[in-house]
Amino acid sequence: MAASDAKGNGTMTHAIGDFVHAYQEEGKIIGVACSSCGYKTATSIQRCPRCGVANLKEVEFPKKGKVLSFSVQNVPSDEFLNDAPYAYVLVELEDGTRVSGWMPEVKKIGDLAIGEPVRWKASYKPGMVFEKEAGGPQ
């Protein structure tokens, strides 16, 4: 999945579809990490937004984390009409990487708490789906 640019720097050549395939078919959260400054993201990029380097490597992220922020969506986009209401969440994974996703089981503000442990769930649905971690607050 990696190639080199004219200067010999490694660049990520895969598309968003590769990320989606990893979620849906391989049960992985994949992303990239900058070999220069260590910046990590689960979004397909060609250069590091922090330092501008093109030398990126593919990494797999942990599936568990905690909720940093969330918002319950009652009026969603067309893609999520049948799932509303649901929570749009910002999750900090166990390695410190922050990703956004959604939680279809959360229907109102009281159903989720900041700091609550969650885990990524492989799904055919769009986006990154999270669910409450067993043993977390109910």
Kindly list the characteristics that best describe this protein.
138 residues, mainly beta, OB fold (Dihydrolipoamide Acetyltransferase, E2P), 2 domains, globular, disordered N terminus
Overview of this structure, please?
- The protein is mainly beta and 138 residues long.
- The chain has two domains: 2-61, no CATH class; 64-132, OB fold (Dihydrolipoamide Acetyltransferase, E2P).
- Helices cover 8% and strands 38% of the residues.
- The chain has one helix at residues 16-26; strands at 2-4, 10-12, 29-34, 40-41, 56-61, 64-73, 86-93, 98-103, 117-121, 129-132.
- The longest helix is centred in the N-terminal third of the chain and has 11 residues, at 16-26.
